[in-house]
# Entry
Amino acid sequence: MWLLSIGIMRLMHAAVPMVPVTEPLKMLVPFLRTLVMVNVILALALSSRVQTLLTALKSFRLPVWLYLPSAVMIRFIPSFIKDVRQIHDTMLIRGYSLNPVFILRHPLIGVRLMAAPLIFRALRSSDELGIAAELKGVGYGVPMKNFRPSVFTCVDGLAMICTLAVIFAACLIQIQLGVEILGDHI
Amino acid sequence: MIELNNVTYSYPFQSQAAVCGISLKVEAGEAVLITGESGCGKSTLVRLINGLCPNFFQGKLNGEIFYNGQPGKSKSLREISSMVGTVFQDPELQFFALNVADELAFAHEWQDKSCHEINKIVEQTALRFGITDILSSSIHDLSEGQKQKVALGTVLSMKPGIVVLDEPSANLDPESTEELADIIQTLKKKGIAVVIADHRLYWLKNTVNKVIVMDQGKIAVKGDFSILSDQKMLDKYGLRRHKIEDLRHSLACVPENGAIKVKDLTFMYKKGPVLFDKISFCLPNGVTGIIGNNGTGKTTLARLLTGLNRMKEGSISVNGKTVSPKQMLKRSGLVLQNTDHQLHMNSVIQELAAAAGELSPKNPCSKNLMNILDQFGLKDLADRHPQSLSGGEKQRLVIACGLAKNPDVLILDEPTSGLDGRNMKRIANMIRQAAKNGVSVIVITHDLELLAEACDFALRLPVLNTSDNWIIEKEKIKNAS
# Structure
């Protein structure tokens, strides 16, 4: 990842010379920022069940036009992964593997092999789900009620205090050390 | 109660009516079976009953539909769906939540009910359908029978007077199908009118009061279940059999010698229990049905035989030569249950060419490929987009694709679910023909008719790892017969 960062920074430097690449200390900051972001997202992704995200979404009390597409998008993540796996299996059975060599040799066919079944599957699923929503009486002006309402507990309070403390510390470090390390141009 | 009075309906931009002059009455506490060949109009009839036609699909409706004596024309889809509950062929596609409790609650969360009320409904529904232990389970971990129960539970918790089941048995094993028949009996006793559109007939023998056979959008034959004992009528309208023999326990077990030999196969998923522990068996030329309950590893065995999964220990040999999983991938074909995943190209002929290893064929209409299409009755559809084909045509195409690379083993996972009698027989004949040509065909199926029509041998799971394996199997068959 470090090497990848150096490579990307060099490319960015070629395009925008004000982005520094020469000094290792200056390289360290964007790298660490990316690392922190990736780790936060990774921790969230690995520790959250899709149903938990759906439940959290319910508690936001969003309007139906925003809630329903978002919920369907999240709801279908596992199905999407399952579909991709099945399509991948079919391709392997037929003797096609989506490796870099294959994609370089047959770029359009590579996209078609994966995308065509996915698109048709998505269209079919959305059609069926649209019908199911109509039959379940979704979105007829009645606001949605979460049958397991979220309650703000001590744990949530503690997590909020910790988050605020981390944000405060990060701001403080940035103000105190940021200028010293990077100079004025970052 | 529902009544259709001389109903004719056409979809938008279609000059021909999908159903024509339908008159039908389903009383409270009555169950009616609607059956017929694919494309006969039974799905449209189901959509007319649950109000999707014309409220969702638009189109032109003539005639009258009455719900509990009130005309349907004056009712919105929401009003109709509060009276008519619908369960689709693939219940998973109608689920909005990812676990059972949330799914049972979902429709009620939009009905302005209190949390306490919704919780009570979820509890009661779970108790009623015996699904309390799976309330927190993910819908992806459920068997097809459990999914069907969750879908039915969701629908019935809304207290409809009419329940419509669209192809309810298509994905169920015989035991779950029997359970569903019992549930329908209970619904009838509670005064609910049940409309069932299905290709499989045998399981409804003691359940339905009326049978309606449709043909080209019209009611062709009407009567009680006994009308289905007329074999000529079944053949004429492409129906399945009304009575079938369950061969799962009596079909001959796979012989001790065969073209494909699996030795000491051991396999387990990461962090999972041992699924196969040093099992050995042979697969002969001919058609072998893999039989076993849910969770016994039927699909995993298919994946191991095709080389998609690597076995922890053991070996596979074809005609005496040991082959690696990588080689097995080249020498085997696998047809999955969902045809949508297996169709990638622009036309039927291109699909077949790609399956035969010709991604950019100079002449896709080569004689060889056209011959294969001809064998599968798809020659006239060579230029059609594969996704525009009917269910039966798609299934035939994916089987043709599976055979296009001349595999040693062809594995078919539920190849006839949701197919009518004519297409089921057609596929059974294709499977037999492939076996005749020297391919070892393996079928994973819950379809008892396909088992009876096509299979020569049975491989029953779980396979024991003792050398007495074959003796035990033979004993079982003796006892069963």
